Amino acid sequence: CRHRGTVVCREPEGNAQRYTCFYHGWTYDRDGQLYAIPGQSAYPPGFDKAQLGLKPPPRVAAYRGFVFLNFDPDAVPLEQYLGGAREYIDIVLEQSPSGQMEVIQGTQEYDIRANWKLLVENSFDDYHLLSTHATWLDYLKNSGVEMKRPQKGEMLPAHGVGKDLGNGHGTTDNVNFRGRPVARWIPIYGEAAKPELERIRAELVSRLGEARATRVADTNRNLLIFPNLVLLDGSSVSVRTFEPLAPDRMRVRAWALGPKEETPAARAIRLDSFLTFYGPGGFATPDDIEALESVQTGLGAYREVPWSIMTRGMAKDGEQLNTDELHLRAFWIRWDELMSRRDKD
Question: Where would you tag: which of 91, 316, 325, 328 has the fewest CB atoms within 10 A of its CB?
Fold first, then answer.
């Protein structure tokens, strides 16, 4: 609010003709213009209501349906900022025949008693999969999902890499073994789901060609867009963002995405996969929350143990595995650059 700075819109969704600040009752219309002020006559003659509308953010831009706000008027253009992350956003959008994904109704919202940057690490760290998510891996195996012996020098049932995409962005890029609603059938989906997934794959091949369809359907990725936006394109597609509430507490919001044209049968497979793995009731998220809150507790010993070890893969030339930590280091290096900038100015 232009009066005292109170947040005017306090609801997460919906619409209204007018927006009234609950503190002193200043009211704005849908375009952000100041509409009414209680007791306006008490203000001096130079008071101009027309100059006191809500301020728009300096930069608003969109890429493939994702809308980004930036409060730095001198920021680089969005596509330049996204850089190498655009390739992976494109792969997600190509799951849809029209290139349009929609947010499936419903929001997962929960708090974690840990610093927000720990969830950045966790969101695209495959090194913890075998130990933290052993119960989920056992569930897959016991349900008939093929779990191959890892290749020499690797830890997981399928090959995967970690990539630094520039500007603090990073991703895992994995051959899929866990099933995908976009045409990678596994026994958990049931025999009745096979025809629908075969139809989806045929459409992908017809539209994209065999090689690109294989890329979309048979690989998965966890993409971090610096600093705190994550696209989880694995068992399902999820958008996750999180904000600090305190140095040791964050609020997480997540949504499922699906192609706009998706049939009810395909949507049911997608939602079941989403809820089985992600969110407060899934196999993975409760494990991750427990791990991050435990890390936060352990970080209380920072005087005795001042550093975390994040050197996996540093001595390698060439390709970095998804269980290495190149992509995690990319985030921290960019974060450090930005946090240190004020000392250089």
Answer: 316
- Under DSSP, is residue 7 helix (H, G, I), strand (E, B) or coil? coil
pLDDT tens-digit profile of 98-145?
A: 999 999 989 999 999 999 999 999 999 999 999 999 999 999 999 999
Distance CA 306, CA 190 (A): 49
**What pLDDT score was predicted for residue 345?**
46
Classify domain 1-55 at the CATH superfamily level.
Rieske [2Fe-2S] iron-sulphur domain (2.102.10.10)
In the chain, which residues have pLDDT < 50?
343-345
**Residue 80, pLDDT score:** 97
Please report the pLDDT score of residue 342 as a whole number: 59
| DSSP H/E element including 251 | strand 249-259
- By three-state DSSP, how is residue 97 classified? coil
Cα–Cα distance measured from residue 249 to residue 20, given in angstroms and rounded to the nearest whole number: 30
The CATH topology of domain 84-344 is: Naphthalene 1,2-dioxygenase Alpha Subunit; Chain A, domain 1 (3.90.380)
Which amino acid would we find at residue 326? L
Asked whether the beta carbons of 71 and 57 are under 8 A apart, the reply is yes
Cα separation, 142 vs 307, whole angstroms: 39
Distance CA 131, CA 140 (A): 15
Both structure tokens of 221: 């990725």
* Torsion-angle region of 279 (φ positive above 0: left; ψ -120 to 50: alpha; else: beta): left
Which tens digits make up the pLDDT trace of 46-99? Answer: 999 999 999 999 999 999 999 999 999 999 999 999 999 999 999 999 999 999
| Lookup: tokens for 208 | 């994209």
Are 288 and 132 a contacting pair, CB within 8 Å?
A: yes
Residue spans of the domains in the chain: they are 1-55, 84-344
**297: which 2 tokens?**
């507790």
Give the span between the Cα atoms of 271 and 256, in whole angstroms.
Answer: 8
